[in-house]
Amino acid sequence: MTAQADRPDAAPSGSVGWHHRHLLDVDGLTRPDLELVMKTADEMSEILARPIPKVPALRGTSVTILFYEASTRTRVSFEVAAKNLSADVVNIAAASSAVSKGESLVDTVRTIEALGADMLVMRHPASGAPYLAAEVFGGSVLNGGDGWHAHPSQALLDLYTLRSRLPGGSLEGRKVVILGDVLHSRVARSNIWTLTAMGADLWLCGPSTLLRGFEAWAARGAAGRRFTVTSDVRAALRDADVVMALRIQKERMASGLLPSLREYAARYGLTTERLRAARPDVVVMHPGPMNEGVEIAADVAVDPRSVITAQVTNGVAVRMALLYLLSGTKSGEGA
Amino acid sequence: MTGRRIMAGEDVRRATIRISHEIVEKQAGTRGLVLIGIQRRGVPLAHRIAAAIREHEGVDVPVGALDITFYRDDLSLVAQQPIVKGTAIGFDLNGRTVVLVDDVLYTGRTIRAAMDALIDFGRPQAIRLAVLVDRGHRELPIRADHVGKNVPTSREEVVRVMLEETDGEDAVDIERVATARSASGTGA
Amino acid sequence: MSGMTTAAAVGALITRTVRGWAVDPAAGREGAAELEIVDGLLRRLTWLEGAAADGITAGGTLIAPGFVDLHAHFREPGNEDAETVATGLAAAAHGGFTTVCLMPNTTPAIDEPSVLAAVTAAAAASGSPVRVLVHGAVTHGRKGETLAALGELADAGAVGFSDDGAPVRSAPILRNALAYAGALGVPIVDHPEDPALTEGAEASEGYVATVLGLRGWPVAGEAGAVARAIAILADVVRDVPGARLHLTHVSTAASLDHVRAGKAAGLPVTCDVTPHHLGFSDEWIAGARRWAWEAMGEDGRARDPWTDGALVAPPFDTSLRVNPPLRSAEDAAACLAALVDGTADAIATDHAPHTEVDKHVEFGWASNGISGIETAIGIVLAAVESGGVPLARAIEALTTGPARVLGVRGERHGVAPGLREGEPADLVVIDRAADWTVSADALCSKGKNTPLLGRELRGVVRLVVAGGRVAYAPD
């Protein structure tokens, strides 16, 4: 995707290195960008393996983590990542602050900036919220998940996990299946961009109500990216190299999208039996938190082919890499 | 850009061998010695010094590599040079004598960052410094124990070290450029 | 423009001679012309021929009857921070409009004569000669439960009935309203929407909404409501031949097909399209800023902005959140085609100013609406420029088209667009060769919520005369 100066993350052409001031989505990341994140995450993994897993790279940098949605796992992952880089961290869970009193997002971000924050890591239930924050924030904004739209750090840690697990570290031509509630998933949307950028043969599978709109996307192929959309779970899993299960929420039944979770588990749940259709060395993933027995069977979650725990560990390394790379761009540079 | 060669291949080889003798002499042997090369060109130099020590002492001194990118005191360069080359220190530093090896010693900031990094790995008994070229202009109170060649330079000049392993040949050139700082081999 | 004098005060009777390319849909004529206005009266209109017409082209100075807007929101009473009748009228004049029909979704709603009177009083107090007509609400408080005082509102001067902002929620109420208003000779102006299908919706259901993770607004959410309203109309006209249905801000091909079929069946249904549904498509939410017709490929399908490199602005700009939502480029093309073939009778702005507080929030939480009355003609002229609609048809849709929808009631209020000798001048003069930059300062409306901020629009309004009096004359 070409970008121009008004975009929040415009990159000057032909330049080596990281020039995105914000990380709000992964749509615009080029293959060199992705490689750079992977390499940097490798270094961060090495640091995490040391007796003292800490470097002073972000000393003096103030990182504020602002989560409007409850999420212990990701919020803590970002906090650990920032602290490992010696940054000063302020962690705000929205319910505990003026936010719940009705203070607008714009006011909250302005306050955070006035309190000295250099970087803002944000999670918000409304798609597009981080772009609003980026408009008013003088430092860098890292999107920790916005509505259904994007979850850049998750897609990047998924990519990192796959590269360390797949033979040759390459996704080229590998069949990757994302199985579950794609419609409501920012993890799915971001993974579509990154996995197709790396040449994977991507399949999206789930009940048709939860795939709404994706057939049109697959047919149009944003930026030439192609993927397959199907409700046939057997066809999707056949010879798959990677299966990523997505969480199904109870609310989907209430909105009439699914008859019941029981029916979903029976028809689309990732069980050992269903997994037999995939390649014997298939990699099993899940962004968490899991509904064991619904979208993924308990025994599959702990199957040796599952990298779910590695995803969590890699999450810290990848987030350290992202904070590090973003810290190098100051306002005005790279727009 | 005008350049002149201040060390040719043979000069580099002789300097490396002399440094390796000096290191052993200062340590009165090889006990407790480890060599840690600073990325990028300090690493092949450290390996060469270890090879020379193996040759004349018959002992294998452990060699590690240290990337100080995350210890720099200037983040503004991250955008242009975020590429990290890798730290690999596969041995315990506690109680050892660490000889840091780098190609060029300039402001001293790289060495300061390297010492910060080393402390995170353990507590060496002593840290020494060996460099191929000392070009002066220190900004911190840091000095090298072993120097291949002292080369007085001006801030408008750039010292370009080339090694077989990284650049295809062994040589050290000085070039005059319009801006004072450059990317390769300087800012140490 | 020859014979220019110094700036005239708003409301003053004007004396001026203007020359340019006149388009008069009432007379069915366009060409080089000279108009002599004396003390507000159009004393003489001369169509120029031969050498006298030299240098006067359709691309230069354009003279047309004052525009008529069937649908605008001036927020008074109740939300004067967003707009007042006075500021709205200034904006209307800046946009070339000499007649504006206001929607009743104020606070309180215009569901009884006293509120209507307050609005017309505010208009009179503003000193603007722009004509203000008012739509009364269909139901009490626009709640969709019981009919509002339709008869009294009609007597008080309402030109239409609408629950706009919302559809008429109940089918039986819509049916009764069509019948009752039909006997009064007043059209029902319906905002076609099925709220059950559009609950929580943020952007038009489709490719862009899917990629951006926005809740989709299905086409059926509008087309279904259009079909229902027309079906109800078909039943009503059997008893009440005077019943009339006007569907406002129709935005999809499917809806327009229903209207086309209704008209073919002889039903008294009319509709309007907005300038933003003609000029922008949903790809703007992703960050594109090309006109909707520029986003169409040769194969008749919308191009992919991600592949085209068309994304030039940050995504999720809340000035693009509107009801009905911006649609696909194909739907925008269908709106333009409907304008050309007459299925769309008029262009109405749906001018919807909002305060910064209501718009500078997350996309899904932003108020719906675009402040569009001042940029309407710029968008329409861009469409003309692109060859998508003939100039005469475009002007017709801004003048005699809406006047026809208003019918006799409009006439009684003085709405009779045309360049007629011996009558008070009611016209707009536009310099099609000049540009203006849309900026917060340049906009007269309090509402700066337009995605065109910072953009250069071609076509500068130079003079607007309403009923012989100056409405806008900056020079």
Q: Which helices and strands appear, and what pairs or packs with what?
A:
The complex is a heterotrimer of chains A (335), B (188) and C (475).
Chain A (H helix, E strand, L loop, with lengths): L30 H18 L13 E6 L4 H13 L3 E6 L11 H10 L4 E6 L4 H8 L3 E7 L5 H14 L9 E5 L6 H12 L3 E5 L8 H7 L7 E3 L2 H5 L4 E4 L5 H4 L6 H8 L3 H4 L7 E3 L12 H4 L6 H20 L8
Parallel strand pairs in A: 1-2, 1-3, 3-4, 5-6, 5-8, 6-7, 8-9
Helix pairs in contact in A: 1-13, 2-13, 3-4, 5-6, 5-13
Chain B lengths: L1 E6 L1 H19 L5 E6 L3 H16 L5 E4 L30 E9 L3 H13 L4 E9 L11 E5 L6 E6 L1 H4 L3 E6 L12
Parallel strand pairs in B: 2-3, 2-4, 4-5, 5-6
Antiparallel strand pairs in B: 1-8, 7-8
Helix pairs in contact in B: 1-2
Chain C lengths: L15 E9 L4 E10 L2 E7 L13 E5 L1 E6 L12 H10 L2 E6 L10 H14 L4 E6 L13 H6 L4 E2 L9 H14 L3 E3 L4 H4 L4 E2 L2 H6 L3 E2 L2 H20 L5 E3 L5 H12 L4 E5 L1 H5 L3 H4 L18 H4 L20 H13 L4 E2 L8 H4 L16 H10 L5 H8 L1 H13 L14 E11 L18 E11 L2 E4 L3
Parallel strand pairs in C: 1-4, 5-6, 6-7, 7-8, 9-12, 10-11, 12-13, 13-14
Antiparallel strand pairs in C: 1-2, 2-3, 4-15, 15-16, 16-17
Helix pairs in contact in C: 4-7, 7-8
Structure overview:
The complex is a heterotrimer of chains A (335), B (188) and C (475). Chain A is an alpha/beta fold and 335 residues long. Chain A has two domains: 135 residues, Rossmann fold (3-Layer(aba) Sandwich); 155 residues, Aspartate/ornithine carbamoyltransferase (Rossmann fold, 3-Layer(aba) Sandwich), CATH 3.40.50. Chain A contains 13 helices and nine strands. The longest helix of chain A has 20 residues. The radius of gyration of chain A is 20 Å and the shape is globular. The two termini of chain A are 17 Å apart. Chain B has one domain: Rossmann fold (3-Layer(aba) Sandwich), CATH 3.40.50.2020. In chain B, helix 1 packs across helix 2. The longest helix of chain B has 19 residues. Chain B starts with a strand and ends in a 12-residue tail after the last strand. The C terminus of chain B is likely disordered. Chain C contains 16 helices and 17 strands. Chain C has a single domain, classed as Alpha-Beta Barrel (TIM Barrel), CATH 3.20.20. The N terminus of chain C is likely disordered. The chains are: A alpha/beta (335), B alpha/beta (188), C alpha/beta (475). At the A-C interface, helix 4 and helix 7 of A face helix 6 of C.
